[in-house]
Amino acid sequence: MKIATFNVNGITSRLPHVLEWLEREKPEVACLQELKAPDKGFPIDAIHDAGYGAVWSGQASWNGVAILSRGEDPVESRRSLPGDAKDIHSRYIEALAHGVLVGCLYLPNGNPRPGPKFDYKLAWFERLIAYAKPLFDTGYPVVLAGDYNVVPTDDDIYDPKNWRRDALLQPETRDAYTRLLDQGWTDALRAMHPDAHIYTFWDYFRQHWPRDRGLRIDHLLLSADLASRLKNAGVDRWVRDLPKASDHAPTWVELRDPAQARPRR
């Protein structure tokens, strides 16, 4: 089974790219972020025509998350992160798809810092940490996938020197990510490629994509059950090379089928 995450940077303008990617790569589950469209603007008919069901939480011009499931309708279980009733940003949605509980998230960027946007980033991160712990402890197969806006280590960026002031690399940001992993979650891409320089995001400035000057900020965190089934993980870089592409590339994991229980004698 293949589970992927993709910050599309606008579902309306990138829809042809999304459909081409779905047709070529055929993930069973796809998490999308930065829809930048209200609920009524989500292209559900085109998604259905591509063979996917979907749940989504949109927001005009900003944010927005969705979960697609091939050949079935995902069963929504949550559409916002608990802990702050005043937070109306569309940044989290959760659903059951192909036997896996899928949390799709778009963590705040946090720039500029210091300031209220960075404070909001850290507060949102704390809410995620608090919510993720009991989720992991259920023992259920869970993946938390999305754009975390976190560069976990200096090995996850082409040149950390030029980004030291950025919210994505701050000690508080990295500490929050480490504390999340310490609950037991497995960073699938890094677990599969422990020593490789693998990027998922290349901004539009200074020819960063052609020069492969990227960052790894899109992550799939696996529960213990799924981590034991991890077969492969990677990045669909060809999508980033399309004309007028998103600045992110789809990131994915491939999982072995769950072990079948032996029949009792």
Automatic annotation (TrEMBL):
A molecular function (GO) term: metal ion binding
Ligand binding (Mg(2+)): N7, E34, D147, N149, D247, H248
Keyword annotations: Hydrolase, Magnesium, Manganese, Metal-binding
Cofactor info, note text: Probably binds two magnesium or manganese ions per subunit.
BP GO annotations: DNA repair
Site feature (Important for catalytic activity) residues: D218
Enzyme class of the recorded protein, top EC level: hydrolase
Annotated catalytic residues: Y106, D147 (proton donor/acceptor), H248 (proton acceptor)
Site (Interaction with DNA substrate): H248
InterPro entries for the chain: AP_endonuc_1, Endo/exonu/phosph_ase_sf, Endo/exonuclease/phosphatase, ExoIII-like
Pfam families (alphabetical): Exo_endo_phos (PF03372)
Cofactor needs: Mg(2+); Mn(2+)
Domain called Endonuclease/exonuclease/phosphatase: residue spans: 4-248
Alphabetical list of Gene3D superfamilies matching this protein: Endonuclease/exonuclease/phosphatase (3.60.10.10)
Enzyme Commission code(s) on record: 3.1.11.2
Residues carrying the site annotation Transition state stabilizer: N149
Similarity annotation: Belongs to the DNA repair enzymes AP/ExoA family.
Protein name (record): Exodeoxyribonuclease III
